[in-house]
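Job type: complex structure
Entries:
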Amino acid sequence: MPELPEVETVVRMLRPRLEGRMLTGVHVGPRRLRVPWQRRWNARLIGRRLAHVQRRGKWIVIDLALPESGDALLVHLGMTGRLILAEVGAPTAPHTHAVFHLDDGKQELRFLDPRRFGLIRYLAAPERARLQSTAALGPEPWQLTTANLAAQLARTRRCLKAVLLDQRVLAGVGNIYADEALFEARLHPGRIARTLARQEVERLRCAVVRVLERAIRKHGSTILTFYYGDDEHGEYQNEFRVYGRQDQPCRRCRTPIAATRLAGRSTHYCPQCQPLP
DNA sequence: ACAGGATCCTGGGGGC
DNA sequence: TGCCCCCAGGATCCTG
């Protein structure tokens, strides 16, 4: 469930604590991960300084400093992944798959993921560069122009929900914020993308940005397992307009929120505020 | 070519 | 109370 706001929250927590630190050791557990850890990555990582902690869509990119450069440690939180700083010697929580020792000797970076939908891997410079470009992963929502979005919507018969979830269109939106953004834009999630008028495209683009910014200010949403820091959790789940609010009154018009399934995902909307033309 | 579906995984919740 | 089944979801691969 970590989407852009949750990942951004984690990155902002880690950045001041990790940047400038050196990796002094790597320990990866025996459980098989989605991308199996390769032993040769250890040599690529140990002795390297962490230059920048960044977010790209839902990906956490920890860039490595000289002597090589352009390579990185890449993390995706999947559904239940957590990247935390723990005191050295603190009890290891269940489902801890990787531990990175740091040169300050006080804290270590741990990757936990009960459901193992997440991913942690070393990323060589060419792949790191590709992740930065918009070739494989679409632009950050703030970089997306109305013209770009309009062009992408015009060339597909998919519904809006499916398009918003497509990371090649724009990076970082997942199931929760897709529903919330469509409510904000007053657009039905089942609307066929290519039928949008120009002003509706602009409304959608603004709504995505506005919802994400609001969620970042609230440190994301915590449902079951999202935490940043030790046990600090997001507060945006209290602001949901539609997600998870099936049969509850719309906060705008009191009409019961509807739930359906689109693009293989649970989808929530207000039938009154988000009508199909 | 494009769109939709299956797949991975496990804790938690609902139902009986 | 206890057990079982099903559900949640991002990215990727597969099928029609």
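Summary: The two ends of chain A are 31 Å apart (CA to CA). Residues 34, 78-80, 95, 113-117, 156-158, 162, 224-225, 263-264 of chain A lie near DNA strand B (CB under 10 Å from a C1').
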